Amino acid sequence: DHDMILKHKQWPRAVQSYLATISYVDVHVGRLLDALDESPYADNTIIVLWGDHGWHLGEKQHSRKNALWEVTTRTTLVIVAPTGVEQDELCDRPVSLVDLYPTLLDLCGLPIREGLDGQSLVPLLKNPNEKWERPVLTTFGHQNHATRTDRWRYIRYNDGGEELYDHNEDPNEWTNLAGN
User: Fold this and answer.
1) What is the mean pLDDT of residues 85-114?
2) Which candidate, 157, 112, 117, 159, places its Cα nearest to that of 134?
3) Is 132 in contact with 93 (CB distance < 8 Å)?
């Protein structure tokens, strides 16, 4: 896709279109939040806003999603609760969307079921700097997997190819350390 976008000189338009869709959604999320704030439910509503994937806009000569790199696996995740969480704080720990269900159970004071793949994010919601050693697994296609920790991203492809990135030194994932 990226080669075609460049070949037809559509890269500025593609970026503009993507940013326009984000602005459009932002406006409507703001309208929804304003309506909630003005309602009788503002003090007892938990808000979770998430997306299913990131999007490349030319990074690594790639456009769209469909990759296991940071830009395409990272997504929006915003959790707001009336009590029991830090307000207006950013947490940079990698977490998984499978953690949403146990998190909502925990926030609602309901028992957490045994055998869930996810775990509650409430410790991170209370303290965004809490130690978090749980890696995140992402799969794309048949037997292509990435594991992400605070520092590292390791990718293993079904053909045996590997990539390893040190996010402390290389947050844009330009230097593959797997062969090192």
Assistant:
1) 93
2) 117
3) yes
Check if the beta carbon of residue 136 is closer than 8 Å to that of residue 119. no
145-148, strands of its sheet edge to edge: 136-139, 145-148, 152-156, 162-166
**Tokens describing residue 106:** 């925990």
Which helix (H) or strand (E) segment holds residue 56: the answer is strand 56-57
Asked if 57 contacts 63 with a C-beta cutoff of 8 angstroms, the reply is yes
Per-residue pLDDT tens for 157-175? 999 999 999 999 999 999 9
Distances (CA, A) of 38 to 28, 31, 32, 33, 41: 15, 11, 10, 9, 8
**Is residue 96 a contact partner of residue 137, using CB atoms and an 8 Å limit?**
yes
pTM: 0.84
| Confidence at residue 56, expressed as pLDDT on a 0 to 100 scale | 62
Is residue 70 within 8 Å of residue 173, measured between CB atoms?
A: yes
